[in-house]
Specification:
Strand content: under 5%
Number of strands: 2
CATH topology: Farnesyl Diphosphate Synthase
CATH superfamily: Farnesyl Diphosphate Synthase
Number of domains: 1
Oligomer: single chain
Length: 324
């Protein structure tokens, strides 16, 4: 039986409980409205995979300490800030099934809340001299912003090839998981070589994670999620890129025309999904996802066996076997 997240968390169960309280404390403000909103954000927490990556990599590389907790909080604060801002940009009213901050308190307050979370993260590092962690996470935020902008730019032209796709997901998604793993290693005093290895490990995991997410858009595994969202948003993902690359000129032109001009039409989206499935796009994407997964596991072989390493391997498996 495959381990679930609760089983994977066993070696760091105490740290995760402690982290939740510390994270709440790090978000506290004297402004009542701000406190009210940050409490709302904390209650909507997801699977908490990011702090899990931080604590498990820290455990693999050394002794979990206060710096590890601050590193995990820094990532959560900066990432939460980007999500709050993303919802404003996307005019999204929901996140993880709950109302978004901008839906409840309007855009102006949502932007200010995002700014506050960003500043709390920066001050947490500066006040404690965690400049090594701040550098790692700041680089990740820069890459995430660049990845989003690159994807938006390319969506207008629909000219994303496989190489550009990998660069987009490396920046948009993999850079964050890479920073979690690098922060975990750096927080326990690992040398630069091991911090770099853990960063590379996290990047491979992030690449596999995003390809898995892209497969969900074609109705793979996840039940109840609307399919074709990426197609509606004119996002070129790996299954579609592969299918278009192997199509004849006429078919390619027809599919691109559907995406460009009829992405809101359910029948047109269904045609694109059918085209991708028949072209072997899903199989190709799964193959590439498994390659990144294997590359991540190969990097872990350089580290000594421990309960942290076992859980970290299980967490990697979970990212590509999850159903949502």
């Amino acid at each position: 039986m495959k381990p679930d997240l609760k089983q994977i968390q066993v070696p760091i169960a105490a740290e995760m409980i402690e982290f939740e309280q510390k994270f709440r404390d790090f978000m506290k403000s004297k402004v009542k409205l701000l406190d009210h909103i940050t409490n709302y954000i904390v209650k909507r927490k997801g699977k908490q995979m990011r702090p899990m990556f931080v604590f498990l990599t820290a455990g693999v590389c050394g002794q979990i300490n206060d710096s590890t907790h601050r590193g995990a909080a820094l990532i959560e604060l900066l990432h939460t800030a980007t999500l709050v801002h993303d919802d404003v940009v996307d005019d999204a009213n929901y996140r993880r099934g709950f109302f978004s901050v901008n839906a409840l308190w309007k855009n102006k307050i949502a932007v200010l809340v995002g700014d506050y979370l960003l500043s709390r993260g920066l001050l947490l590092s500066v006040d404690n001299g965690d400049f090594n962690l701040l550098q790692i996470v700041s680089n990740a935020v820069r890459e995430m912003s660049e990845g989003e902008l690159l994807q938006s730019y390319k969506a207008r032209k629909l000219d994303v090839d496989e190489e550009v796709y990998y660069e987009i997901i490396r920046q948009k998604t993999a850079s964050l998981i890479a920073s979690c793993c690098a922060v975990g290693a750096s927080s326990v005093g690992a040398d630069l070589e091991n911090v770099s290895k853990m960063r590379d490990f996290g990047e491979k995991v992030g690449m596999a994670f995003q390809i898995k997410d892209d497969l969900f858009d074609y109705g793979e595994d996840e039940i109840g999620k609307p399919v074709g969202i990426d197609i509606k948003e004119k996002k070129m993902t790996l299954p579609l890129i592969y299918a278009l690359r192997n199509a004849d000129w006429l078919e390619k032109r027809r599919i691109i025309s559907l995406i460009k001009n009829k992405s809101e039409d359910k029948k047109a989206v269904a045609q694109v999904i059918d085209f991708v499935k028949k072209s072997g796009g899903l199989e190709y994407a799964k193959e590439k996802m498994n390659e990144f997964y294997q590359e991540a596991l190969d990097i872990l072989k350089d580290f000594p066996d421990s309960e942290f390493k076992t859980s970290l391997k299980d967490l990697v498996s979970y990212t590509i076997e999850r159903k949502k």
